[in-house]
Amino acid sequence: MIMLHKLLLFILLFSVYTSSAQSIPDKTNPPRLVNDFAGILKSSEVEALENYLVKFNNETSTQVVVVTVTSLDGTDASDYTFKLGEKWGVGQKGKNNGIVILIKPKYNTDKGHAFIATGYGIEGAVPDAIASQIVDNDMIPHFKKGDYFGGISAAVNTITQLTKGEYTADEYVKKHKKTGGYVQLIVFVVFAIIILIAKSGRGSRTYSSSGSSLPLWLLLGGMASGSRHHGNFGNFSSGSGGFGGFGGGSFGGGGAGGSW
Amino acid sequence: MKHTRRLRWLLMMIITLPLLTSCGYNTMVGLEETVGAQWAQVENVYQRRADLIPNLVETVKGYASHEKETLEGVIEARSKATSVNISADNLNEQSFAQFQSAQQGLTGALSKLMVVMERYPDLKANQNFMDLQAQLEGSENRITVERQKFNDAVKNYNTKIRSFPQVIYAGWFGFEKKPFFKADEGADKVPQVKF
Q1: Is B140 helix (H, G, I), strand (E, B) or coil?
Q2: Average pLDDT of chain A, as a whole number
Q3: Would you say residue A15 has pLDDT above 70?
Q4: ipTM of the complex, rounded to two decimals
Q5: Is A12 exposed, middle or buried (0-12, 13-18, 19+ CB in 10 A)?
Q6: Residue A256 to residue B41, Cβ atoms within 8 A
Q7: Which one of A185, A248, B42, B75 is least enclosed by Cβ atoms within 10 Å?
């Protein structure tokens, strides 16, 4: 009985601790690319942005997420955005091609903040200086007039233009499929020839089992890894209708922001 | 005599072997490697900041040539900061403190420079300077993020080697507690790069 009490207390304390430590919102279920927590966009605007970004994600595997919040809970806009991106896992694992656009609207005397966080893999396509210019030129002038949709869509437009060439999921898949297939075929043919020669060879020469078993293992290994590859890349194309979810990308502090 | 010694060896082998394979030796190696990799990231982002400085100083010089003292302070702090390099195997309290204080010196010199820049509206309007400013802010952000990730990695590692049963034998294999970043005294604030 005492044990149970202790356990309950522990769970309670633990949940209080974790909830106070994390002011970053959880991702919605099912996950969405446009998350208007602050309610500054019309539902038709959210839909338009969402559709555009889902399409962009399916074509390029690059994930651009728009998040609006009513408060930053006293943290820096930069810190808030990195943590959100890291927590949600925006971008693909390994490529780290995620972008988070955070907007905290201006409320009377409470300053407005905007921040664009770039994943490790995006820092080359959208350097900090460019991100800063997007915030200053595309977003803040609109935001000052209260036109949040205008600012967000201008920024999204610029960002998708800049990152378009960086990652192309389909081409990547195609390229790997082709080379993988050819290599396996060639290895198989060579292997078959070796076996044929070995079998027809005279008894004096021993093509020992150790000699031929090595390529067999290599071949098996190659086939196994080949099929694993296909499985991985297939994930991107599977979600052609809706958004398939975040990929576990990581953020290293790239990006820039501004306030108005 | 000989027999007992051999027996003792055998016993020790029997006891330690399962410990090595199943009780976290490999995990400790893995965690230590993660710390090392994350340390490289930390050095990377500090280096990135240092690399921005010559360009920044050149740009500022063109507009505020008589702020010689401040500019020289930055250059000096930079050379001091880049001269302190520690490899991941060498991470101990002392070398770590040295690294941190050198980098902190540069942070301080930079924030002083940024305060001085307030007085030069022409410089603030210069696109090249604005880009540099964004890059510098980005560097400071990266430093914050990578330091956090490094601390997390160290925390995982330290927790592992100090918990049972690893605490008994972690020391035998040279797994030692690693230092982590503490908030810089009073200077933890990212230099205020406001214009």
Answers
A1: helix
A2: 77
A3: no
A4: 0.71
A5: exposed
A6: no
A7: A185
